[in-house]
TrEMBL record:
Species the sequence originates in: Thiorhodococcus mannitoliphagus
EC top class, as a word: hydrolase
E.C. no: 3.1.1.29
Protein name stated in the entry: Aminoacyl-tRNA hydrolase
Span list, region Disordered: 95-141
UniProt xrefs under PROSITE patterns: RF_PROK_I
Species lineage: Bacteria, Pseudomonadati, Pseudomonadota, Gammaproteobacteria, Chromatiales
Length: 141
């Protein structure tokens, strides 16, 4: 059981792991031993996730989700299977925690009078700077 939040728990039956050879340098060991892990989680059909959390997770995961909604995390940061397995599970838990956080809705506000005035003043100053530059180039020509 993977405990994400006090409310969200993912049973082991929903996770599948595949061990592969890790890419990159590592000498003979990397060519012989499958230490990297691919952790797959069917986010689209998981009964453990609420619908709003599922939608945010699929959007957050981006290209790590395939066409069927299966989220795959590859971990090959460490030299041992156990550490890579823990790393993949922690990264999955972090993604789900991030998706479980409901974003605060933005309340549209109008710009203050002072901010409008500051913006217009800076635009006028910038315009004057550019105008003085163009006048000098006319006199030189």
């Amino acid at each position: 059981m993977l405990q994400i939040t006090p409310v969200i728990r993912i049973p082991e039956s929903e996770l599948s792991e595949r061990f592969i050879r890790a890419p990159g340098p590592g000498g003979q060991n990397v060519n012989k031993v499958a230490t990297a892990v691919q952790l797959s989680f069917d986010a689209a059909r998981s009964p453990s996730l609420a619908e709003d959390v599922r939608q945010r997770l699929l959007r957050l995961a981006g290209r790590r989700v395939d066409g069927e909604g299966v989220l795959t995390i590859e971990a090959h940061r460490f030299r041992t299977r156990e550490r890579n397995r823990e790393d993949a599970r922690e990264r999955l838990a972090g993604l789900i925690r991030q998706a479980a956080h409901r974003p605060k809705p933005r309340i549209a506000t109008r710009p203050t009078r002072g901010s409008k005035e500051r913006r217009l003043t800076s635009k006028k100053l910038r315009g004057r700077v550019k105008q003085t530059r163009s006048r000098r180039s006319d006199e030189d020509a």
